Amino acid sequence: MASEFELIARYLTPAAPGPGAGVPLGVGDDCALLAPRPGQQLAVSVDTSVSDIHFPVDAPAEAIGHRALAVSLSDLAAMGAESRWCLMALSLARNDDAWLAAFAHGFHALCATTGTVLAGGDVSRGELAVSVTVMGEVSPEAALTRGGGQAGDILAVTGALGGGAGGLALWQRGERDLAHPLLQRYLKPMPRLAAGLALRGLAHAAIDISDGLLADLDHLLTASGVGARLESDALPLAEGLSDELGEHEARQAALCGGDDYELLVSVPPAAWAEAQRRLAAQHLALTPIGTLHEGSGVSGVSVAGKQGWQHFRGTAS
Amino acid sequence: MASEFELIARYLTPAAPGPGAGVPLGVGDDCALLAPRPGQQLAVSVDTSVSDIHFPVDAPAEAIGHRALAVSLSDLAAMGAESRWCLMALSLARNDDAWLAAFAHGFHALCATTGTVLAGGDVSRGELAVSVTVMGEVSPEAALTRGGGQAGDILAVTGALGGGAGGLALWQRGERDLAHPLLQRYLKPMPRLAAGLALRGLAHAAIDISDGLLADLDHLLTASGVGARLESDALPLAEGLSDELGEHEARQAALCGGDDYELLVSVPPAAWAEAQRRLAAQHLALTPIGTLHEGSGVSGVSVAGKQGWQHFRGTAS
Description:
2 copies of one chain form a homodimer.
Chain A: H1 4-12, E1 32-34, E2 41-50, H2 61-79, E3 82-92, H3 97-114, E4 117-125, E5 129-138, E6 154-158, H4 163-172, H5 181-187, H6 193-198, E7 205-208, H7 213-224, E8 227-230, H8 241-245, H9 247-256, E9 263-267, H10 269-280, E10 286-293, E11 298-299
């Protein structure tokens, strides 16, 4: 059976990074050495994906690799940061060459798409889980935070909502055709890094929708010290969502479902046209769904429960 | 039951970092924002500690928190890097307030001792496991690597060896007095950060002894392209090790046991006296255990098996 060192060497070591990668010393020593660019701040985040909590254990390995990186990169997108490097901590219950090869393929492919260099990692024995630390760069004045929203701002979301919850529902019903748009949304979300970069200097506040629209909106409002009025009819629903779940459930999924990995942003009216123009150039919708106002709380929606996706509450799967 | 957000807020959020911490934005947004110092490279590493593989599940929670951070910081020590920041990804099987409080105490206490700021984290449900990403700084010319060893260098280790394996053996025999020096070595190792800093500019090569002396020596020799002659009688044994294991087993533990978290360094003869003087000022032994020579391989030791501590081989616990 292959040793830890052999596993790392075979599947988790990327090709030697080029001179522009900012990796003077890559995988293979006690630490990797990275060269941050002068004048930039480092945006860092870590997310763990645990089998049968964050993804089905029998999901395709390639999707698990993609998804574990995507959910972390989504946090960089929400800060308006440029993705630079990542570290992976992988726990494996068993040592399956074909599974690992597919997992690594999904991970490395998204690294390549997003310009992210895998700089190090750790492999251990345990139930299947992947922790990915991402490191990006953003200039101090350009970073998007949750706390910048102002009364009068237009509240908007990128892309479409409810696909995460819809895809999970479909998977649980036995759908296995990964070409289905909802399964794509659930198993292979695309972090909105380019949108985050494009909204620098325009958006007042941003957060990614990983816990569900209402839960993440609540975080943005609390950090910004404002309230919001939602136009719930305006929510952009993921392709096929109403057909699969029915109109009512689809709307609930868009409001409360987790794992959408879209950006929720607040944009001042004066910057709105430019923000839409920039995202349209990326073939990405930016849909207004409400406005921010003085005060607190959310009006304009009626839902059974506002709770987002949280672990330890049993709502996670 | 407390939610993920409440757990994070209660136990894992440190006190607001001061102005010198280099954390313009700490826990509470999608990412933390860090301010690297100009001219420094970033040394980064991640290590996962899984219950009943890397530590006994019934070890004191405070020691588990300390240890999970210590093993990652040991990698910074081996690069001669100054510890700055860390991220914690914690998986918990159940939500136990007292356990979490003790775990957090052990983690935060070592953060404080080592000047490391917890900048973010993630809590999920799963078997007990802790992944800690550490980030340190080192100037490009000062970094210690595995690959700089040269023929003629003196091979040396900090502190004492075999305590990790000895402590584990003691724990397995039922010893629970944490004041026992071997249990201290196993459950509460102290990363040799100050030694790593002191050896900058003196040592040609360094690695931490996490997989066992012979396994890590092999990594250093391979990276440096040299061989070594060991004086196995010179190995500094951890306090109490021979009494507990007997002379032969104690020597085997020093050669092949894992989890010692001492530094193995190669120092040119001209720098030797200064290196010993600097570590003596830290009340830390630096013991010569052999020399590097042209060629490859290790002579001077006779062991049953040279394999170090690897997962997936069943030698881990």
